[in-house]
Amino acid sequence: MGSGFSKKKKADEPAALPSADTPAATSPAPQKSLAEPKSNPTRGGGVKNEKAAATKLSKAEQLESSSDEFLKNKRVDKALSTLLECLSLRQELHGAHHSHVGDIYLKLGVVYSELGRFSDARQKFVQCLAIKEDTH
């Protein structure tokens, strides 16, 4: 009977403060903020970023395929505008010095050549070659 009373009494007593020798007294444990997300979903490979990249990649592939059809059908002006849009997406997705970007420069060179813009064509062929030499 007396043992139940002493347990109750101990529970009501305040907890002892840590001494100077315990680690809790010298350096409190860091507190994690509950408001901070573990990762930002729009940066560094988050779900939203991955979906946006997949959408852009699909769009770039579609544009590249369309430009081939336009060029085959002698719609060179349409092929040019499509390739320029594709180039922008490819650079955004892969960086300016990627083999897929080099492929677009090659196609742009062909289109500029078809348009009689030989200086522009040469510039695109040189850009393509520089990328291909570095990436292969």
What would a concise description of this structure say?
The protein is mainly α. The chain contains six helices and no strands. Helix 3 runs antiparallel to helix 4, helix 4 packs antiparallel against helix 5 and helix 5 runs antiparallel to helix 6.
- Chain-averaged pLDDT: 79
What kind of oligomer do you see? single chain
Gyration radius from CA atoms, angstroms: 32 Å
Order of helices and strands: HHHHHH
User: In terms of per-residue confidence, which ranges show pLDDT below 50 for 5 or more consecutive residues?
Assistant: 1-9, 22-27, 29-44
Q: Please provide the count of β strands.
A: 0
Strand fraction equals under 5%
